[in-house]
């Protein structure tokens, strides 16, 4: 154990996070955690993970003097900096191992709520991460099926019951930071609906946002130009934005896609990003005039023996935003 601590401390000397940056990340994601939750180190690790990805995406990417680090190094900085975590620093390895085991075993389910006309999407803002917006979702309980978990979480976080709206075969699915996330697509919600979170000190606000103005990537400043909101605020939404826009831009009636489901798996690291799409269809080839059958792939299978046609995710549904371009012309 002493050797592990010495090794960790050595690596921390080699990598450092400026105090003002670390303080900003802690204030965004950890400082507002309720006192009762601070006793749950697994829960705290999830908040540290949010801060970590925010650090890589919006500090390291935009500041040449800062470099990326492993999550363990980042967590060590946080544990050393916060007084309530300092007593647990000596067993950081055990805490992170327990957290990873828990995270990989517990998926999260929720919903993407679209208004009538599918022009706006409902996002929620957490008390714990006040500067960020995301979809209403949460971890599944023991022996709870995905749909019931989504219904429960959406109701707890927005006060809206999606029981009569949910289509069990219409969802987006992604593996983000080693955790499965499934979001059921819900359409036809009135923008006049009054949303009232049912849990205290968890959700601060529920607001409609124009789908067209959400960022396609972390450097897309459309939200800043159109809504006055930093694109950084939507980093938890990014894995699903292009798929939502793709469906809407294609002019499809999402509510009628009862025999289709889309699964998108994404995992990110500081050195590489892997994308995997699995389309499960019963009549999906009808639109394209194709009738060959495509096999789904297992979690670790990247290619099969048949011909593989690759389309980079960054080019899916690509189009110019004419309005944004015209606004930049003097």
Automatic annotation (TrEMBL):
Keyword Metal-binding: yes
GO cellular component, one term: nucleus
Keyword Manganese: yes
GO molecular function: 5'-(N(7)-methylguanosine 5'-triphospho)-[mRNA] hydrolase activity; manganese ion binding; RNA binding
Subcellular locations according to the entry: Cytoplasm, P-body; Nucleus
Top-level taxon in the UniProt lineage: Eukaryota
Signal sequence, renumbered to the chain: none
Annotated region (Disordered), positions in chain: 259-299
Gene Ontology BP term (one): nuclear-transcribed mRNA catabolic process, nonsense-mediated decay
Cofactor(s) annotated in UniProt: Mg(2+); Mn(2+)
Domain annotation Nudix hydrolase: ranges: 104-235
Reactions this protein catalyses: a 5'-end (N(7)-methyl 5'-triphosphoguanosine)-ribonucleoside in mRNA + H2O = N(7)-methyl-GDP + a 5'-end phospho-ribonucleoside in mRNA + 2 H(+)
Pfam families attached to this UniProt entry: DCP2, NUDIX
Stored CDD domains: NUDIX_Dcp2p_Nudt20 (cd03672)
Chain intervals with Low complexity compositional bias: 262-272
Keywords, sorted A to Z: Cytoplasm, Hydrolase, Manganese, Metal-binding, Nucleus, Phosphoprotein, RNA-binding
Function: Decapping metalloenzyme that catalyzes the cleavage of the cap structure on mRNAs. Removes the 7-methyl guanine cap structure from mRNA molecules, yielding a 5'-phosphorylated mRNA fragment and 7m-GDP. Necessary for the degradation of mRNAs, both in normal mRNA turnover and in nonsense-mediated mRNA decay. Plays a role in replication-dependent histone mRNA degradation. Has higher activity towards mRNAs that lack a poly(A) tail. Has no activity towards a cap structure lacking an RNA moiety.
PANTHER family: M7GPPPN-MRNA HYDROLASE (PTHR23114)
Annotated protein name in UniProt: m7GpppN-mRNA hydrolase
Organism, as annotated: Oryctes borbonicus
